[in-house]
Amino acid sequence: CQIVEKKAQPTLSMRTRLAAQELPQFFARAFGAVAQYLSEQRSEPAGAPFAAYYNMDMQDLDVEAGFPTLKPIPARGEILSGELPPGRYAVCTHEGPYDKVEPAYTALMAFIQQQKLKATGVAYEVYYNDPATTPPEQLITQVMFPLK
Q1: Distance between CA 145 and CA 121 in Å, rounded?
Q2: Higher-scoring residue by pLDDT: 130, 82
Q3: What angle do CA 86, 65, 43 make, to 5 degrees?
Q4: Nearest alpha-carbon partner for 124 in 99, 147, 96, 103
Q5: Element of type H or E holding 27
Q6: In the beta sheet, which residues pair with residue 95?
């Protein structure tokens, strides 16, 4: 785990509330719709896809999923224009299946406490490879907590 400083990053995303077991379908829909819209705008992602979790209620997750963009792009319908906020983040990288990411969260929370810092309550995950073509044990997920 480490602390990194991040600049504001424009994004396009979709946001919803759902049960955790519905995440794969939502991610497929959100990433597909945002990628299509980026293509229509003659643009491309500025990095790997991300998800933002605004709560941790597994039966009623408030979740956003999308891509960072090279520049701000107007919202359209369900697709929201936003940004990953600037500031300090505690980050930890998980290698393995998505359903085994909890130890990265635990390690990151312990690291934040050891550093006597406070997280904002939002958790971000950045997905560095494609689960359709990457074996689950080789998936790379970066977990990020913005700091107050």
Answers
A1: 7
A2: 82
A3: 75
A4: 147
A5: helix 23-40
A6: 140
Distance of CA 117 to the CA centre of its chain: 21
What Cα–Cα distance (Å) separates residue 110 from each residue in 64, 95, 97, 129? Answer: 25, 19, 21, 26
Give the whole-angstrom CA distance, residue 56 versus residue 60. Answer: 8
Contact assessment for residue 96 and residue 137, using Cβ atoms and an 8 Å cutoff: yes
pLDDT in tens, 66-111: 999 999 999 999 999 999 999 999 999 999 999 999 999 999 999 9
Give 61's contacts (C-beta < 8 A, 6+ positions apart): 17, 18, 19, 20, 23, 53, 55
Q: By the 8 A CB rule, do 1 and 90 touch? A: yes
**Rounded distance between C-alpha atoms, residue 89 and residue 2, angstroms:** 8
The closest alpha carbon to 147, from 110, 121, 114, belongs to: 121
Residue 88 near residue 5 (C-beta atoms within 8 A): yes
Q: Which residues is 88 bridged to in the sheet?
A: 5
Quick one: tokens of 61?
């997750």
**pTM score over 0.90:** yes
